[in-house]
Amino acid sequence: MHLVFSALLVVLLVSCGLAVERTRDLLGAVVIFASYSLLMAINWQMLGAPDVAITEAAVGAGVTTLLLIGAVSRTRRREE
Amino acid sequence: MPGRIVYSWLPAAVALFPMACTGLVYFAGRSSARLRNMVALFASAGTTVLAAAMYPAVSAGNTLVTSFGGFLPPLGISFRVDTLSFFLALLSSSVWFLVTIYSLEYMKDEHGQTRYYSFFVLTLSGSVGTFLAGDLFTLFLFFEFMSLPAYVLVVHEETPAAMRAGLKYLFMTIAGSLAFFFGLVATFELGGTVSLDRIGVITQSSPLSLFTFIAFVAAFGMKAGMVPLHVWLSDAHPVAPSPASALLSGIMLKTGAYGLLRVIYNIYGVGFFRAVGWASGMLFAAAVTIILGSAVAITQMDIKRRLAYSSIGQMGYILLGMSLLSERALTGDIFHIFAHAIMKSCLFLCAGAIIKKTGKRDIREFGGLGQRMPVTMACFTVAALTMIGIPPLNGFISKWELSLGAFEAGKPFYAVLLIVSSLMNAVYYLPIVITAFFTRAGDRAAGYAAPDAHARHVGVSTGIVAGFVAGDQTEPSPAPAGLSRLLSSVAEAPPAMLVPIVVLALGCVVFSLSPANWPLHMSELSAKLLLGP
Amino acid sequence: MSQQLLGHLNFLGAMVLFAVGLYTMLTHGNLIKKIIGMNIMDTAVFLFVVSLGYVRGGRPPIGAAGTAAGFVNPLPSALILTGIVIAVSTTAFALALAIKIHENLGTLDADEIVRRTRSG
Amino acid sequence: MLRVFPGRHAASFLGLLLFWFALGGAWDLQHLVLGAAVVLVALVVRWRVAPGPSHETRPLGRPMAARLGAPFRVLAYLAFLMVEVVKANIQVALIVLDPKLPVSPVFMAYRPHLSSDWGRVLLANSITLTPGTLTVEMDRDGFLVHTLTRSAAATLPEWAAEWRVRGLEKAFGGGADDA
Amino acid sequence: MHDLILSTIAGYLLPLITVYGAYVITHGHLSPGGGFAGGTIIAAGLILAALSWGFHHAEKVFNENSLGNLDTLGSSGYVLIGLVAVFRGSLFLTNLGAGFPSGTPGKLFSSGAVWLLGAAVGVKVAATVFGLVARIWSGGGASGEVDEP
Amino acid sequence: MRELVAALLLVAGTFFLLAGTIGILRMPDVYTRMHVAAKSDSLGAGLWLLGLAVVTSDPTTVVKLIFLVVFIWITSPTAAHCMARAAYRSGVRALPGTLRLSDGGVASSAGPDAVPGKERSGPCT
Amino acid sequence: MAHGPALVIALPFLGAFVCGWMGSRRIGFARWGAVGTAAIHAFIALSLLSRVTRNGPLTYATGGWPAPLGIEVRVDILGAVVLTLLGCGATLILLFAQSHEPAELGRQAERWYWPLCLTLLGGMSGLVIAKDLFNLFVMAEICSIAACGIISVDSRPAALEASFKYLLLSAVGSGAVLLATAMLYSVTGYLDMDAISRALPAAAASFPRVTMGALALYLVGFGLKAALFPLHVWLPDAHSAAPSASSALLSGLVVKVYVVALARIGYQVWGPDLLWRSPAPYVMFWFSAGAMFFGSIVAIAQRDIKRLLAYSTIAQMGYIFFGLSLRSENAVAGALLHVFNHAVMKVCLFLAAGAMIARTGKRDLAGLSGIARSMPLTTAAFTIGALAMIGVPGTNGFISKWYVALGALDLGRPLYAVLVVASSLLSGAYYLPFVISAYFGPDPGHPRGREGPPAELAPIVILAAVCVLTGFLPRFPLQHMLEVAKSFFALR
Fold it and tell me: D34 and D89: one domain?
């Protein structure tokens, strides 16, 4: 069960990564990246690194996303 | 006469004294020009005196040694003075002294004199140090100390042509010094030492040792104007101020030759050389240098360019002499270093005087110079005849010894080559003399009308022929109308310029076939020393 | 066994993500996209670090003296935590730069930026 | 700066302290001291950072009975909300799992009669959580509500939540909140 | 752009988040988390408040100046705590050996200076992260451009 | 017994979350999707956490889980509201055929271009 | 000075915080605070050096914990020499920057500038004395970010772009380094360099691919940061677009510390035996040979003086890597010596170029012709630096060249020595024309400034003097570097 879930997580992570790569809309990419970070946080929790999971959730999904959104909103939204 | 090793501070003093004076010259130049000139003069005179002071020890057959081991590890700086070193150091410092006197007048109205004198003195330090160096590394160091400041002398005029020539000089110098550097490292690697105090540091023939030798030949050959590394020389010598040219041609070329001597006879050793047979390559290069230098000189109409190419040809003799690997040849070789130093300095100084007084550089316009500048032209003639090798002048002696050496080495072809090249020397020197004495001012000598392109394209033999034709066609000028006119036409260079010229020309005459020829004696001793027991 | 497999799975995922991140970073002209790519790459490295630890059975290989049996070795966590800190500061800095570039040049496209800085 | 009733402050302080203890799970003196400090700082930060108090502060007198009844009202409201949430989810599930996807969305304006901001916010969020409705836009005059179906739009004005919130407002003193 | 719901909710959440962040910081030696994570959490709370109320409100208190002060307080605090050990004659950052009280293991004030160091880091991180986001969002100016009152 | 209750709660939570996810995928426009997101999140996650709370013995953890539920119930509708509002303000169009009822209950059909919105972009604000 | 190893890292950081804090109030404090901190750093570094040379390596475990838990640093001779270099170099650069950067940067940027410089100094110090690989990574990151910061403080578009490029590429590099560290950790279980070094032979036997991969990643990671040839793309832009003092810091000091890190990993962690069983040195060899030629040839084509210097850095870094990739004590000593020497001369060159640019407002080589007439001392210093670059004897560049060439011959590869020599010739090809035109070139006629104030001139002149001094008396760095090289090769 654990294994299946982990495998699912990894697959999701990879597909999120690919989706970020494919998305031309930057805001969309940022949002997908945020969910990627959350998935990563879950994965770390599962791999036995709660510290890292907390930090990743706060930083990856929180601060980084905010920074990215801020930057996108101050520049332009689409990749030309 | 087994020599002792004597530890003495003198060699270091000789080498470093001018270097110390450089700063003095510079600071003196900031306050007064006169003081600066005096300091410069003092520096070269002092160097000469210090060099001469080594004579007693050297004449006793001793070797003077100074070393600073803690300096620049792992190699250290050391000086080592044997007969050869002493002889060449004395030669260079005394020529330098004379040229300094000459400069005082020649450079009077030039710009940047402080810079000129500073580097002039620094270059002296470099060249004297090169001759006195006790190991290859010190030699390298002083070689650089001579080459790099000399750049400033080359580009002194700061004209575009000078800058171009300077750049060429600089790149060649650096290329040479890098080759030297490589040779140095390789020598250290192969022999574990770079000291010049023995014969045969590298004793085994290997690709690396050949490679090392090629690096050395490239480095010193470049400085000595060996074909095909001569390309800088023909540009740099003409553009430099005449005293600088005199030193470049007279002394600095010799440092290259000296370096090669040391490499061949000390680093490798003559026995080694005989065994490996690399000398044939050197001989070939020397032959090409002689022929090409002389041939191109014929086609040159600028006096200084002609002299520069002549230097290339003459350096060919020196290269030849050291590659023949026989005692006679070596004696002639070393003597030719001396002889060529004084005659080529003399010629360049004359050329400088002529250019300074008349503004003419083209030898086709030299008509009437014999009347206007009799002393200068007389000295020029003496030096030119020496160059051709007319007996009893000292050029003859060196060529004689060299030819004998060629026979001794079993290579008579090179003796023939020497004779041919003497003829070529005649072809390019005599017309100058003839034009100067037997043509009126303003006449363009007829013989010069055509051969320029001609000789260049057709080749050596045509050049010779054209030269003879030129000589033949020169008509004697009508006798001067009267003494008063003669006197009024005299516009001789000032004494400060004339004295060095005359002294050098006298040197050509004095150290000739006279019974007590001290330089020849020194050369013989040196050759013995180099060849070892 | 299952843990081994899990470790390898994550290992594999990390490798793929690293590639994805690097690819995003190198092929996309947009600076912000590059930054996101960099973040993906960084997290992939962190994932790799954790999964490497996992391959060896979840127990840290060091038996530090004086530590209790259940004591979790802080080392890999500390490693990644520091890595995250560094990643976020790099990201913030890069974004600030990107914004400034946009203010100055009006574009976020790398080629365009190079063109404009060269010409200007 | 602290333009709110001290009692309100005390409540916040105590609530946060409770939160702190709940997090720490220990009830010792160390936690109390540090917790008090932390909570104080948190509150000061919150009041300092917040924009100025609302212009619509209308402190209401609170009868004793209302005060006593407040906790019960809160509990009642929570229970009510839970039921509504469950209902909402079931409804959503039904709609979603229906192959025809029977949605008939409506944008409607809605004017609640509430006196306090927190009351309005509570209502708005409750609307969002409850069957078929979603608060899209909101200001002091009214809401713009999006409903999933026409029937939800029709029933919204009669929904029980509004009077319950009004009751809560009465119990806690409406309008005293700012932000 | 003012949103009543968001700003009200933010008003309730901000102290909660701050307290939670402080919890994560101060219990770093007892449970997962620590200075960095907690600092980020506090910063996230502040950012939430600033986003919903407008950065100009937050910058009344947390402007570049005061953030700089906090930043310096945190970071030099860390170094200074480390140096305390040096002045006590131990090595840099020595904890118990330098005379910091060890406390009872498992209690809040235990592990000597780790606690203090965590707090210093937390303050530093919170200030820095908030400053970063504020700069990115409001263009580094004194007041926000993104949102109007 | 506790395990059974917990399992039931978890299953129920999962069901609602699953329904929510399907809903997000199936719903035709932003606003309807937000409905689903807000509702299924709060109940689904709430049931999960409740289920966990039932099986957990550590009281602190239980308290924390309950706090979490409260948080989610506060934040989830707020977030849904924010997104809907942002979409509305930046002029994201609603499903064609969406009715508009003004205050008095007067209906008007909102055509494809009927949703007014200030031309403002920006997340949530 | 028992706490020197910790202080040398902590002090610059503390200084950075305080300067950053004071910067918004009294900018003068920040300026002189930066110089003062760097000077104290230099002093500590010097005293550490004397200690280390007398008593051997100094290990300092922060927190009093042993290696796996606490942060341990070790100042060995290499570390001490490089620390001294960093301290003294930074002091001089910052002193130069005093009279220079305020005008170039503007108040707002300047507030960030001094703290960033100090942060960079702290990061570099940490990098050279870090004993475990993880701290190596952390410090490398701090350096990278601070370095990007000092490139882009003044917000010129070109600088921003360069900084961005640098930032992203160095992020790739640090990703590689972290990955490599993790891989090593996974196979050996240590982060401490000594411990890894002991455990590595066994690990390499059982996990050959992992260790090889780690080494390759280190090479890529630090190679990127140190601008090893095919990975150098960021350097010319970054080093030429930065403010002058930053360029000097970056080109002179920053890239060097990464080399030191790589040398440590290669020689102290892997050890020569293991290292030469991997392809890494061979790869490095060819890359560095490429760098020597590529850097020089491209530099010849440059028209901007700072770009010229930047490309020269690439070539010279190639030179250092070249020495490191030869399995010979002499070559490694030469390379390490060149780390020191190149730092001195490149800082001198960049500062001199900065002074020239500041006084004339011109950056192109043609625009600076004849500069010697108005700025004789600066030009003289530049000349000395350039000659040292070429490796003229009597300058320090010669000594390092000597040892690298000697090392090549030790290996029986004269061709390598020729390569070294030829690359020097190439460096002559781009330095000399400028130097010559500075002395003899036509004066373009626009108004020329005079020499800068003493605070600007002094660092330049001091550095030029060091070039010559260590050229004639190279004992100070040389002896140490030989010792270091010997210890590298003594490792088994």
Answer: no
